[in-house]
């Protein structure tokens, strides 16, 4: 009884501690972004919300186009969203049938292909930087978002296929066999049985791919640094951090804008994950 009470208290202590450690950096970043610059210089360590002197000018500066004297982050966010959503869509369109085929079909080299998917990640991205830079320069795609999209899709497809294959392996084959006896084709079984049951894994993988594409910096810097109109939000933020002319409040506002979409999408996807798991249980 005593152990149960002690562990019950310790559980909540750990949960509260993890929540504070997780949220504190974002909270402090937000506080810095809404404080006037002179107040920040006087007391940079203050953690109180400055209700009497809220200053949203840093966000206006960040979102205003460069032609209007701002940083143009609205355009950068649009570029990042287009590339990230395109990466999610293309990678899932390729990974879902690919992972299902590896999970359900017997063919020569099946195990070797699964191992090769993970072997891709034994090589750091920096090794591919110069060859890809040369390749896309010769194709005339350097400075274009399509080059970034191609690289991101090639990066995430192997791990997406690997993770989805593991989930398809957990789906009982008896369900698919019963559907086949009722006259479903292989594609019909995939669409009517396997996809609804695999929806939690598909959603979580889509979120994982989106976060990679949204936050990626190396290839964005490599391909887009000379074309400001095509910058992604991570590249734009890095340029702010490297400039001595940009106030800290503006830099923190850019950091909040970079982080906020991921937080919103994560909580939205968490709800969808719960619904997907419930639907899978009903169908099972």
TrEMBL record:
PROSITE patterns recorded for this chain?
ABC_TM1
Q: How does it sit in the membrane?
A: Multi-pass membrane protein
Q: Name one GO biological process term.
A: transmembrane transport
Superkingdom of the source species: Bacteria
Q: What are the record's GO terms for cellular component?
A: plasma membrane
Keyword annotations: Cell membrane, Membrane, Transmembrane, Transmembrane helix, Transport
Q: What is this protein called?
A: Transporter
> What is the originating organism of this protein?
Pseudarthrobacter sulfonivorans
């Amino acid at each position: 009884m005593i152990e149960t009470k002690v562990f019950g208290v310790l559980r909540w202590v750990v949960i509260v501690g993890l929540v504070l450690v997780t949220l504190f950096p974002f909270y402090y970043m937000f506080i810095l972004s809404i404080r006037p610059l002179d107040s920040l210089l006087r007391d940079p360590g203050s953690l109180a919300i400055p209700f009497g002197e809220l200053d949203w000018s840093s966000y206006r500066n960040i979102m205003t186009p460069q032609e209007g004297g701002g940083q143009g982050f609205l355009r950068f966010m649009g570029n990042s969203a287009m590339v990230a959503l395109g990466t999610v869509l293309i990678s899932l369109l390729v990974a879902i049938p690919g992972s299902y085929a590896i999970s359900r079909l017997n063919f020569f080299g099946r195990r070797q292909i699964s191992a090769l998917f993970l072997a891709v990640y034994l090589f750091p991205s920096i090794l591919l930087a110069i060859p890809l830079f040369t390749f896309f320069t010769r194709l005339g795609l350097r400075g274009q978002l399509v080059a970034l999209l191609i690289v991101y899709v090639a990066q995430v497809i192997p791990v997406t296929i690997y993770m989805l294959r593991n989930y398809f392996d957990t789906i009982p084959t008896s369900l698919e066999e019963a559907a086949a006896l009722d006259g479903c084709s292989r594609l019909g079984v995939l669409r009517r049985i396997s996809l609804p049951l695999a929806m939690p894994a598909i959603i979580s993988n889509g979120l994982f791919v989106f976060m990679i594409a949204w936050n990626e910096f190396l290839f964005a810097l490599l391909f887009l640094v000379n074309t400001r109109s095509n910058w992604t939000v991570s590249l734009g933020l890095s340029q702010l951090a490297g400039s001595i002319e940009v106030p800290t409040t503006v830099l923190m506002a850019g950091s909040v804008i970079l982080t906020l979409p991921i937080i919103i999408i994560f909580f939205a996807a968490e709800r969808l994950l719960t619904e997907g798991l419930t639907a899978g249980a009903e169908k099972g």
